[in-house]
Amino acid sequence: MNPMQQHGLNLTRRWFLRDCGVGLGKVALGSLLADSLVGRVAAAAAAKPSPVNPLAPRQPHFAAKAKRVIHMFMAGAPSQLDLFDYKPELAKLEGKPLPPSVIRGQRYAFIRPDAAVMGPRYKFAKHGKCGAEISEIMPHLAGIADEICLVKSCHTDQFNHAPAQIFFNTGFQQPGRPSLGSWVLYGLGAETQNLPAFVVMSTGSGISGGAACWSSGFLPTVYTGVRFRNQGDPILNVSSPAGVDARLQRDSLDLVGALNQRRLATEGDPEIATRISQYEMAFRLQTSAPELMDLKTESKATLEMYGCKPEEASFARSCLLARRMIERGVRFINIYNEGWDAHSDVIGNLKTNCGKTDKAAAALVRDLKQRGLLDDTLVMWGGEFGRTPMVETNASLGRSLGRDHHPQAFTIWMAGGGIRPGLTYGATDELGFHVVENPVHVRDLQATILHQLGFDHEKLSFHFQGLDFRLTGVEPANVVKEILG
Amino acid sequence: MTAAGEVGLKMLFEKHYAAPLGRFRISVTTDETKAIARAIEDEVERALMLPDTELTVGQRAELRRAFLLNAPELAAARAEIDKLKKALPAPPTTLVMKERPKENPRATFIHNRGEFLQPTEKVAPGVLSALNPLAADAPRNRLTFARWLVASENPLTARVTVNRQWHILFGRGLVRTTEDFGLMGEVPSHPELLDWLAMEFMKQGWSLKKLHQLIVTSATYQQSSRVTPQLIAKDRGNLLLARAPRVRIEAEMIRDATLRASGLLSPKVGGPSVFPPQPASVTSEGVYAAKSWDESTGEDRYRRGLYTFTKRSAPFAMFNTFDAPSGEACVARREVSNTPLQALTLLNDVTFTEASQALGKLLASRAGTVEERVAYAFRRVLTRPATKDEVAMLAKFFETQKQRFVAKQLDAAKFAGTGESDVNERAAWAALARALFNLDEAITKG
Fold this sequence. Notes:
The complex is a heterodimer of chains A (about 475) and B (about 450).
Chain A: H1 3-10, H2 14-20, H3 27-44, E1 68-73, H4 80-83, H5 88-93, H6 100-103, E2 124-127, E3 132-135, H7 139-143, E4 148-155, H8 161-170, H9 180-188, E5 198-202, E6 226-227, H10 246-267, H11 270-293, H12 300-306, H13 315-327, E7 332-336, H14 346-370, E8 377-382, E9 386-394, E10 399-406, E11 410-415, E12 423-425, E13 427-428, E14 435-437, E15 440-441, H15 442-452, E16 461-464, E17 467-470
Chain B: H1 42-49, H2 57-70, H3 75-87, E1 108-111, E2 119-123, H4 142-149, H5 156-170, H6 191-203, H7 208-216, H8 229-234, E3 247-248, H9 251-262, H10 281-284, H11 317-321, H12 340-348, H13 350-364, H14 370-382, H15 388-406, H16 412-416, H17 423-437, E4 444-445
Antiparallel strand pairs in B: 1-2, 3-4
């Protein structure tokens, strides 16, 4: 072996060269080798991101309850007062303003602080053995009441959609910080080399926070969430151009690989070795992505449980795809459903959005459980803030019977991943305005999720521009121990 | 209204989004005459009432102006003038900062944790005490600060600037932390060189062009990037620059270089942003204020990357994939990642396919043997002559693919794009061009 090759081998990416090089890189053999090799790397990897492959699997700070996360982000902010946080007192006060002592100087975008109270628009009942109160508009969620943990005392710092969504995902209200999914990849690496480890799906009308919600911020860009699209290629450019068949693609990769290999031999630059291996992974993605998207192998019963039509992009299909991704080793999944911003017609808004999401979200939890995946998969459902107990009415904007933004209190639910099922945690006052029991700040949720994944949120940090940044920032953040199983 | 009596007026104030009604007024009159809006200004009307002898020069000019603007008999001439005026190109304009008047400076405070509602200590303009001071008698304003910033006694600005240029050319600054020259930044690897370059930069009138020339004509820059075991043993990370660095070029440059080598790149400078092709789903799905990405056609399809339209919530996909920051936060130093999504982009993206087709067409219509044309394509894409082996490997690939196209194992018409020459030839050359664009060397400077 010549000295240049020796140099290349000495460099940290040596296994790519030896095992994923041209000739050996055929699909099946390539992926088999890659996975077994990844296993070997994992055994040797420390908790610190290795300089080798930024996505190599790594051990967290302590034993984790959850290995993977599915976050169903209900962008636009669902009305907790009509879904989870039942306040009969509001019905009694309907039409009357709230006292200023409750409002405490809060200013609103659309309503006046003395706007009249609006009672719950839907009926509530107790469900499951645990007796969780859930609105009639979510019958499927009611059916899994004993599997989920309702947190009714969430609160946030942010009043508007984009900053609040970015804050929920990145711990900071302005774009530029790494998202939760990026931190998780940075900390844990990837379980699969055949699919992106952090996937983002969206079937709603549009996310105000935009790409900042799944950005890697100042972390290396390999930790950015990869969008799965509804139309065209699910992963951009995963299909070869028209007229290129598998053999031409393979021949091209072999030629490119062989020429790159020669260059590596003379230059000794490890980036060339990485490039060779990334081309092989791209080739595998061209097979694994269509395989993932192909729902033909799903039974009729499963499709029916989710309410999923295989050819139609929908929240339901995203949920089913999320389960398939979890089975294939994807680490972190965001499913966005934007459209809960009920400034008008709360009744119609919830009917539409619950119609789209309730069945599938509940099916996802059931399906993960029946496949034994719920124990180490943390599922979360919720928006960026809550909605006001007061009504929003505005003739010039054509609005009536709506609710404005409400950062002081909102509800989310979690399931699996070591979260205590059948628990309702925290409480708001009788008007649903302020949290009065066991407040859970967005930062506390972030700390809790990281904890379930095996991280001390104060120790998972990244040095950038002279500071050790972390997801939860410098304000106090606490793991919510009471909701852990 | 005819009868006397009370009138009730009920008003409902609402906001349209963030905008309530501005200044409004209600006027009441007992005059029966219907009010008519006048076309004539108050001053002009007053002047018209005056006797001729009392008119000032200014008022006369004002009356003349009003006459010229309003007289019906001049309407045709005015239309002509308006038309000519409209034909004039609008001068380019830009927003500028203006110093506030001395007697009305803005009070500036340190805010508690940056919270704008919590001002604490009031502060005055000044510079860091560790650096050279401002002239004692100079007013504390923007002009003074600008002069201080580029004063020859202050080498910092020039140092930071030359370091960033060095970073762009070498992939690593003389101070590695280009964004941080402070306590938490790294110390320079070559402090004297950094200082000399900074002084030279100032001496040459802060000309970036001259600075680039100075660096790229240096022996250090023109070295080979080839490494030897001795060099590795002595300096694995190439801190001492005994060899040229290998740097993967930036997102926009990858696009520009590919389009240039294919012959498609438009040299047009300036003008409104353009919309090069990208999958529709990038801007249509899950994006706030989704908009359709109306692909540019003709020349605008192949402009340099920097003219690409930027949408905050949905950045241009190819740039995003190759580590271009979204522009939401200031990034002095880009990440350089190496991912499968990048491979998929270079292999399958529309722009890169069109570049392959364009180069394929060019090669198909070029005279010479297959080997000669392979060598030509290689040089065009990689800017160096190919070795014999490399030519042989590429020529073999070309022949194999051509046979497959001829045998109709592959649909040449689908892959080749448009053109007059033999479709199988064009398709096979396009396949070869595509392979070249995907080489590590094609996107790496070294």
